């Protein structure tokens, strides 16, 4: 018998053959673009230093951007808001005339078919930058925060958000948000739960973008220890049982094993968030001439899909959609 009988290289020829046997697809409809919308800014677009290519948008610039993203085949945007003023409680989050509520209405008017996912958290709205209500000892009060998060989600859903995405990591918030939405007749509003959100160094550029760096301490008392994949699966199962429609793992690239385990344990729709630091690393390497941005970004996004993510939230979504046309 001639050696080798099996030649895996037979199917690797560039073109139709290679396409025919590709196991993982990456298409624009798998991608979601996060947008930063700001109420009090002079210009329609303000660049974010650590995230080249991503701007803070005024409400009308966000509506324009949404139309372009929809034309590129993206199904959804994720909205983060920067209020005109912050306070101790983060009351801008549940203001019916707040930044995310206004942006949601403007985007749904401009582009009704594009899904709006509203991020539910208080850290962009609190003067201290923590994700919830502080007790006098400086710790975050879980149960009091959950009430404010539910109030925020209702206000966003009433403004027209198709989905709400709690990213705060308080215990019990998915169940509370689900019951409050249902009690308000908002039974079709879906919940994308940031189930396994790690305390991560990769959120740095986001905190510049959203002006949400905690003024003291860190988020380790509520965000997960990245070393704990079993706990990540428990978080995912709890969120599923509390009524989450989609489960998210965040960040993505340093946690691909967690994406796979959550997918296998739940068989639910799973999202992974390719976060600001992952984007910034690639941008910096590309700017220095060390990496081919397009090839590296498409490879990274494909690897997140391969790990088991049905949906990838990424700052590269818009570029990737254009590259994939
Ligand atoms: C807020 C929130 C954060 C991100 C999404 N929602 C930051 C944080 O927890 O500090 C990070 C997203 C990114 O880095 O792209 N709770």
Question: Can you give keywords for this protein?
Answer:
alpha/beta; about 40% helix; single chain; globular; binds ligand PBG; about 325 residues
Structure description:
The protein contains eleven helices and ten strands. The chain is α/β, with parallel strands linked by helices and 325 residues long. It has an eight-stranded parallel beta barrel, surrounded by nine helices. α8 links the parallel β8 (246-250) and β9 (270-274). α2 (59-71) crosses α3. The relative contact order is 0.13. The mean pLDDT is 96. The site of ligand PBG has 13 residues, from α6.
What's the arrangement of strands in the largest beta sheet? 1-4-5-6-7-8-9-10
Helix proportion range: 25-40%
Q: How much strand content do the residues show?
A: 15-25%
What is the averaged pLDDT score? 96
Largest sheet report = 8 strands, parallel, barrel
Low-confidence stretches: none
Query: What gyration radius follows from the Cα positions, in whole Å?
Result: 20 Å
> Distance N terminus to C terminus?
46 Å
Q: Which structural class matches the secondary elements?
A: alpha/beta
What gross morphology would you assign? globular
Number of strand elements: 10
- Quaternary state reads single chain
Bound molecules: ligand PBG
The run of helices and strands is HEEEHEHEHEHEHHEHEHHEH
Put simply, the count of helices is 11
Outline of the structure:
By secondary structure, the protein is an alpha/beta fold.
Q: Secondary-structure blueprint of this entry?
A:
Elements: H1 16-20, E1 31-38, E2 45-47, E3 55-57, H2 59-71, E4 76-82, H3 99-110, E5 115-120, H4 142-158, E6 163-166, H5 173-183, E7 190-197, H6 204-210, H7 229-241, E8 246-250, H8 256-266, E9 270-274, H9 276-287, H10 293-307, E10 311-314, H11 317-324
Helix pairs in contact: 2-3, 4-5, 7-8
The structure holds ligand PBG.
């Amino acid at each position: 018998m001639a050696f080798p009988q099996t030649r895996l290289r037979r199917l690797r020829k560039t073109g139709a053959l290679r396409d025919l046997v590709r196991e993982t697809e990456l298409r624009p409809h798998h991608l979601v673009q996060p947008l930063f919308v700001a109420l009090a800014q002079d210009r329609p677009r303000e660049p974010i230093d650590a995230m080249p290519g991503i701007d803070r948008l005024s409400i009308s610039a966000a509506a324009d951007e949404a139309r372009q993203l929809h034309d590129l085949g993206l199904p959804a945007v994720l909205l983060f808001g920067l209020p005109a003023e912050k306070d101790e409680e983060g009351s801008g989050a549940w203001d019916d005339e707040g930044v995310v509520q206004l942006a949601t209405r403007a985007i749904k008017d401009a582009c009704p078919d594009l899904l709006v996912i509203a991020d539910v958290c208080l850290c962009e709205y609190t003067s201290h930058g923590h994700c919830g209500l502080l007790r006098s000892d400086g710790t975050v009060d879980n149960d009091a925060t959950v009430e404010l998060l539910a109030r925020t989600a209702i206000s966003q859903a009433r403004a027209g958000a198709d989905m709400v995405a709690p990213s705060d990591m308080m215990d019990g918030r998915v169940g509370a948000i689900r019951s409050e939405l249902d009690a308000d007749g908002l039974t079709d509003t879906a919940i994308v739960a940031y189930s396994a959100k790690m305390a991560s160094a990769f959120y740095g550029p986001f905190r510049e973008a959203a002006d949400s760096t905690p003024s003291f301490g860190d988020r380790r008392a509520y965000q997960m220890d990245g070393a704990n994949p079993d706990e990540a699966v428990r978080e995912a199962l709890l969120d599923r049982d509390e009524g989450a429609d989609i489960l998210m793992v965040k960040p993505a690239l340093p946690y691909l094993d967690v994406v796979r385990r959550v997918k296998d344990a739940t068989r639910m729709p799973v999202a992974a968030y390719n976060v600001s630091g992952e984007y910034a690393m690639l941008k910096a390497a590309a700017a220095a001439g060390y990496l081919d941005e397009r090839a590296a970004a498409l490879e990274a996004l494909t690897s997140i899909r391969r790990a088991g993510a049905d949906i990838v939230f990424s700052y590269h979504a818009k570029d990737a959609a254009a590259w994939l046309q």
